[in-house]
Design goal:
By secondary structure, the protein is α/β, with parallel strands linked by helices. Helices cover 24% and strands 24% of the residues. The strands form 7 sheets. The protein has a 7-stranded mixed beta sheet, with helices on one face.
Length: 560
C-alpha cells in the first residue's frame, strides 16, 4: 500500500484511527482507505458541506484511497435533478473527483429490503402496528423500558405483513418494521427503532415502485457496506446513532464492515447553514437565488469571487476535531484575501465618481502609461492606461473644507499623486445649483510623469486612483455585507428571518472602470486599488454592461 501523503491534509484524530485500522493487526490491515460523501439532494451545497468534502475526499487522497459520491436519496420528498447536477458541479469546482463511483442510495432499495427480510427471519426485526403517536407514548423513559405488544409476534406473521406493506396493502403510518434490539437501552436509538415506514409517495428515481422506505439509520450503514467503504466519516449528531449503525452492520450478511467516525460540524457566524433555512431565503425572495453572492452556498461563494484554493485553505486551517465551534465569517474572508493577494491583477475603478479636470492639461491631448498588473509579481505583466484632461476620481477623495488630517484633495491643499501618472494640486471645484460638487479642478506637474516629481520634493498627500473619462467603461458594482446582522441567526429558537441585515446589498450604478476591464469574462478577479477584490458577475453581466461583485474588502477585520 502507498505511503500516506501528509502534504495534502494535516493529520487529525480521524487519521490516527485510520492509521491504527490499517496497521498490521488492525481491522482493515493492508486494505485501501475508502470513504464517501453522501449529500441528500434536497438543496445546494454550502460551506459546511465543503468541510465534509474536504474531510471525505481529502482523507482518501491522503491515503491514496478512494472516495465515492453518493446521493442519499432514501427520503422520497423534495429531491430534484437540479440539485443532483449542482452538487456534482460544486464538488468538481472545489477540486475533487469520484471517477466512476457515483451512486444513488435508492439503487440499493431492493438489497435493503432483502436484508430486512433476513433480519425478520433471524428474529431480529418485527412488524409493529403501533401508530406513530402510540409509539412515542410507549417509548418509556430513563427508568422505564419502551413497550410494544407486537414484539413477540411470530416470525411468519411479521414476514407476511412486511411483504404486504411492500405490496401497498396498508396506508401510511399503519405499521412499521422495527429492529429488535433492546427496549430498555439507555440509548433510545436502540429501543427497537423503526427501520421501515410506509409512505405512499413517488420517488424522483424509483417512481411508484416503492411505498415503503428505509429509515436513515438503517439505510446508511447498508449503503456504506455495499460500496466497500472502510471509514464512514460524518458529523457529531450521529455519534449516538453509531451503536445502531454497528448493530445493522453486525446483523446483515454483508461481508464488509465499515467504521463510522464522527467530527464536529462547521458553523460560521452571521449566516445560516441549514438547507431548510437557505431554502426559505430563496423561496421567500430574501435573496436572488441559491447562488446569490451573500449565500453561504458553494455556488454563492463562487459567484461572490471565492476561489477553490481559498475554501480549501479555510477548511485546512479550521482543522478537524470533536469540539463544536463557530468560525468567524471574517476568517473565511481572510483566507480569500490571502489567495487573491497573490493572483489578482491590480486595476483602477471609481465607484462613486466625480469629474476631475486637469486645467493645465491641453484639451484633446492624451497619453498612455504602462502600469504593472501586480506590484510583487512582474510575471503578471503590465497594461496600458490612458490619461487626458478629463478624469474621474472617487467623490470622497475631495473635500472642499477638509477635516483635520485629511490627506486627499482640497482646494490649495496637499499635493497628491494620481497613481502611476502625475502629481496634482487641487485648485477648486465647480458646484451645481444645489451646492453639490460636480467637478474638481486641479493642476498637474508636467515634470512628475510616472508619479515622482523631478525635483525630488516630498508629496504629502495620498496616492489616489482615477480613470480617464475619455476611455472609461461604465459598470454596475454590487457591494455586500453580512446577510444577517445578528451573529448567531442559526441559534435554536431564533426567528432567523428577523435577523436579516437590511443593508446586506448595495448596488452602485454608473461606476467608471479603466478601459482594460470593459470586456472581461468571469471568473476573473481583480483588486480595484484601494477598494477591495472584485469579480465579474457572469450571470448578470451583458456585453458592454458589466456587473462586478465585491468579493471582499481590503481591510482585514480578522484578528489572529
Ligand atoms: P441540513 O440539515 O442542512 O439539511 P444535512 O447535514 O442534512 O444538512 P446532507 O446533505 O445530509 O445535509 O449532508 C451531507 C454531508 O455533509 C453529511 O455527511 C453531513 O454530515 C455533512 N455536513 C452537513 N453540514 C455540515 C457542516 N455544517 N459541517 C460539516 N459537515 C456538514
Ligand atoms: Mg441530512
Amino acid at each position: 500500500m502507498a505511503e500516506k501523503d501528509n502534504s495534502l491534509m494535516s493529520q487529525n484524530f480521524i487519521h490516527d484511527f485510520i492509521d491504527e485500522d490499517i496497521a498490521e493487526g488492525g481491522r482493515y490491515a493492508g486494505m485501501e482507505v475508502h470513504t464517501r460523501f453522501p449529500p441528500e439532494p434536497n438543496g445546494y451545497l454550502h460551506i459546511g458541506h465543503a468541510k465534509a468534502i474536504y474531510v471525505d475526499f481529502g482523507t482518501a487522497q491522503k491515503y491514496h484511497g478512494l472516495c465515492n459520491l453518493r446521493m442519499d436519496d432514501t427520503n422520497p420528498t423534495k429531491e430534484d435533478v437540479e440539485f443532483v447536477d449542482a452538487i456534482q458541479e460544486d464538488i468538481h469546482w472545489l477540486g475533487y473527483d469520484w471517477d466512476d463511483r457515483f451512486y444513488y442510495a435508492s439503487d440499493y432499495f431492493e438489497q435493503m429490503y432483502q436484508f430486512a427480510e433476513e433480519l425478520i427471519l433471524a428474529g431480529k426485526a418485527y412488524v409493529c402496528q403501533l401508530s406513530p403517536e402510540e409509539m412515542s407514548a410507549n417509548r418509556g423513559d430513563v427508568n422505564t423500558p419502551a413497550t410494544s405488544p407486537y414484539r413477540n409476534r411470530p416470525i411468519e406473521e411479521s414476514l407476511d405483513l412486511f411483504r404486504r406493506m411492500r405490496a401497498g396493502e396498508f396506508p401510511d403510518g399503519a405499521m412499521t418494521l422495527r429492529a429488535k434490539i433492546d427496549l430498555a437501552s439507555g440509548n433510545f436509538n436502540l429501543r427497537d427503532p423503526a427501520i421501515y415506514r410506509i409512505k405512499h409517495q413517488r420517488h424522483h428515481r424509483t417512481g411508484d415502485q416503492w411505498c415503503i422506505y428505509p429509515m436513515y439509520d438503517y439505510a446508511h450503514p447498508i449503503e456504506d457496506a455495499l460500496e466497500g467503504i472502510t471509514h464512514s466519516l460524518c458529523t457529531l449528531e450521529f455519534e449516538d446513532h453509531r451503536p445502531l449503525y454497528d448493530w445493522v452492520i453486525d446483523n446483515i450478511s454483508c461481508p464488509n464492515k465499515p467504521r463510522q467516525i464522527e467530527f464536529a460540524r462547521l458553523g460560521i457566524d452571521h449566516t445560516v447553514m441549514s438547507k431548510r433555512k437557505l431554502r426559505a431565503l430563496v423561496e421567500g425572495g430574501f435573496v436572488s437565488g441559491w447562488d446569490d453572492p451573500r449565500m453561504p452556498t458553494i455556488c454563492g461563494l463562487r459567484r461572490r469571487g471565492y476561489t477553490p484554493a481559498a475554501i480549501r485553505a479555510f477548511s485546512e486551517a479550521n482543522g478537524v476535531s470533536k469540539a463544536a465551534s463557530t468560525v468567524e465569517f471574517s476568517f473565511l474572508e481572510h483566507c480569500l484575501r490571502e489567495d487573491l493577494d497573490k493572483s489578482a491583477r491590480r486595476v483602477m475603478a471609481v465607484l462613486r465618481p466625480v469629474a476631475l479636470t486637469i486645467t493645465n492639461y491641453p484639451e484633446g491631448q492624451s497619453e498612455s502609461f504602462s502600469i504593472e498588473n501586480h506590484p510583487k509579481d512582474p510575471s503578471m505583466g503590465s497594461r496600458t492606461v490612458t490619461f487626458s484632461r478629463h478624469l474621474y476620481i472617487e467623490a470622497e477623495d475631495f473635500m472642499e473644507e477638509p477635516v483635520k488630517k485629511y490627506k486627499r484633495l482640497s482646494p490649495n491643499g496637499l499635493e497628491c499623486r494620481l497613481k502611476g501618472a502625475y502629481v496634482i494640486r487641487c485648485t477648486g471645484c465647480v458646484k451645481d445649483e444645489a451646492g453639490n460638487v460636480v467637478e474638481v479642478l486641479a493642476e498637474y506637474d508636467p515634470d512628475s510623469r510616472g508619479g515622482d516629481p523631478a525635483d525630488g520634493r516630498k508629496i504629502k498627500g495620498a496616492a489616489i486612483h482615477w480613470v480617464d473619462a475619455a476611455t472609461a467603461a461604465d459598470a454596475e458594482v454590487r457591494l455586500y455585507d453580512d446577510l444577517f446582522s445578528d451573529a448567531a441567526p442559526d441559534a435554536a429558537g431564533k426567528d432567523f428571518l428577523a435577523c436579516l441585515n437590511p443593508g446586506s446589498l448595495e448596488v452602485l450604478r454608473g461606476c467608471k472602470l479603466e478601459a482594460s476591464l470593459a470586456e472581461t469574462q468571469a471568473p476573473a478577479s481583480f483588486q480595484f486599488m484601494r477598494l477591495g477584490y472584485f469579480c465579474v458577475d457572469n450571470k448578470d453581466s451583458k456585453p458592454g454592461a458589466p456587473v462586478f461583485n465585491r468579493s471582499v474588502s481590503l481591510k482585514d477585520s480578522f484578528k489572529k
